[in-house]
Backbone:
């Protein structure tokens, strides 16, 4: 088990974001709280018709350089997916175009689009064998102190998967071996590394015209019957993932 921990640690050296995973973070009030904007973290999220936006919040300090990354997992059906990310907070300029959300009182916004990105940057994480496209990478100096938000969404209203990362300081001092095992399962499932998972994932959809899948052949069987707007992830983990999850549970019992 020690060798597994070391192997994951080596993988993290190239992309040392502490991972967190999907939740109902669809409004400013329900935003996921960034524990410390200095510490490197990543939040993986599925964008659905029911939850078309990802909101994160943080306590900002004036003159703090906030590092922001927006990425998309390397999955064939997401090759043309171009989401946006916005920084919302006090002291930022007023919106210069229409947004799909209302700004909290007393805030402005900076929007970073990726629709003009032809060749996104790439990242490969060797331990989980996952790849991502980097759509946005920015550092913004916060003009004023106060609560700030990050918002990610697809301007075209398409479902998909994305992640948002903040912070540059690597800190895994509170992480246990079982955490690494669970992370590897969840990260691989999010990226649909298992070809069976990817093959059974429903096609992406534009939420205001959900009858037509995005760049996918006509579905058959259960997929066709599902209709409407679907999320990208397949229901259930691969057998590999379940095995690692079980190992993590055993490890936690032993440590307890």
Residues:
């Amino acid at each position: 088990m020690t060798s597994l921990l070391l192997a994951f640690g080596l993988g993290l050296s190239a992309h040392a974001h502490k991972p967190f995973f999907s939740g109902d973070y669809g409004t400013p009030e329900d935003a996921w709280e960034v524990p410390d904007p200095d510490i490197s973290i990543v939040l993986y999220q599925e964008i659905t018709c029911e939850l078309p936006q990802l909101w994160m919040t943080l306590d900002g300090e004036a003159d703090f350089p906030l590092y922001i990354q927006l990425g998309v997992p390397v999955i064939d059906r997401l090759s043309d997916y171009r989401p946006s990310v916005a920084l919302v907070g006090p002291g930022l300029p007023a919106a210069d175009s229409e947004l799909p959300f209302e700004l909290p009182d007393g805030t402005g916004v900076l929007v970073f689009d990726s629709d003009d990105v032809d060749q996104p940057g790439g990242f490969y994480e060797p331990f989980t064998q996952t790849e991502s496209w980097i759509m946005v990478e920015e550092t913004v100096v916060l003009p004023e102190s106060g609560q700030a938000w990050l918002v990610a969404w697809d301007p075209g209203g398409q479902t998909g998967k994305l992640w948002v990362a903040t912070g540059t300081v690597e800190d895994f001092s509170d992480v246990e071996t079982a955490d690494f095992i669970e992370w590897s399962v969840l990260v691989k499932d999010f990226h649909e590394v298992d070809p069976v998972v990817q093959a059974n994932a429903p096609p992406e959809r534009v939420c205001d015209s959900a009858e037509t899948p995005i760049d996918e052949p006509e579905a058959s069987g259960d997929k066709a019957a599902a209709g409407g707007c679907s999320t990208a992830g397949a229901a259930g983990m691969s057998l590999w993932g379940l095995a690692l999850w079980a190992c993590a549970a055993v490890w936690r019992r032993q440590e307890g």
